[in-house]
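Example record

One chain of 452 residues, shown exactly as stored in the release files.
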Amino acid sequence: MVAAYVAFYGIILFTLPWWMAFVIAILVTALLGVSIEKVAYRPLRNAPRISVLISAIGVSFLLENLGIVAIGARPKSFPRPEEVVWNITIGDISFLSLTVIIPVVTIIFLVAVTYMVNKTKTGIAMRAVSRDFETASLMAVDVNRVISTTFAVGSGLAAVGGIMWSLQYPQIDPLMGVFPGLKCFIAAVMGGIGSIPGAMLGGFILGMGEVFLVALMPELSGYRDAFAFVLLIFILLFKPVGFWAKMSWRRCKCMDSRQRIKSFLTVGLLVLSCILLYFAQDSLSSFNTRILNLAAIFIILGVSMNLVLGFTGMFSLGHAGFMCVGAYVSAILTMSPESKEMIYFMEPIIPPLANIHWPVLPAILMSGVVAAFFGFIIGFPALRLRDDYLAIATLGFGEIIRIIVTNTISITNGSLGLKNIPSIKACGCTGLCHCYNTGCKTVDQQQLGLCL
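Predicted structure tokens for this chain:
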């Protein structure tokens, strides 16, 4: 995203030659990568790997949202230089020059990076640092310099990829790197983290798999992104370190008794907060009640995350998927048949769900049961993994749920979401009413993405 916007403004605003704008974009992105390493990663050098993963996710969200605030969310048309993009005609076949240029550029950079990693002193130092920080530092390797160099090279390569993506699909926005980033992450995991040939093979298998899925089964084209995450999960379950990497498990750290006491105290505070809300609902204004209930929602989400991370020591990124399942189940069960007939105008809801109309409280309980069932089904194979491999697998499961919800229009109404969900004013508990209405009033894919 950064490289695409730097090149865009270099060509459009500063009227630089396209090649100069591209070079500046690569250099700026490499410099940004080094700065991020110093701020977000270096302080966590000796922290658990999960902490580094969380920091990486935070930096990603920060860059995306800064882009939306500073540049705007409206897509912009990326200029395509005539010297780079032209039509090639061979007999009856016509195609763009990018069809040839992008693979050639990819091969050139792949050969260059492979040579640097395997044949230069910097590359040997990079491989030594990837094995063991402390041992490398004892062998007179400047660990900080090597890691900064690695981030510069990696960020520069990402800039090259972003520029080629912008040329191939000439429309840029601050969120343009989300799915390409996830796909390249999947390719790297498939091939093995730290293996350049593995990343190449993983990207080739992923790209060809999606193409053949659409070509052979066009009715499943809406699930092409889900195919990538299903493939990722299978790789993680049966060969979690990829095709070219060696197995390196880390033992899970168990909690001590003090941590368990803190977790139980958290649950107790949650119950106490609900009791206080119940008795204070008549004396608080609607604004204050809404604030308290928003806090209660985040407390519930925090407790749910703590049950996984605190009691098992495993980090999950799939909670947004379980939130989605619970919200849709409760919404579908509580909506009246008339509302369903009005909202499902693109494609009618399937007959078994068309006439179901439950009271709100039983529907909420059932949504929890269904979400727990999905958690059990997902957790049964995923818990074979540890550390960041588990986090990656749960991220894949969350994305699969999102894609399925988007494409099953006759059940979820697709990307339009569900609206006009009944509230529970008559239950006598304003806190629960506000929690339900705030969390489920509009079930929509954008909210799921924000949660994730």
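Notes: The CA atoms of residues 90 and 404 lie 41 Å apart.
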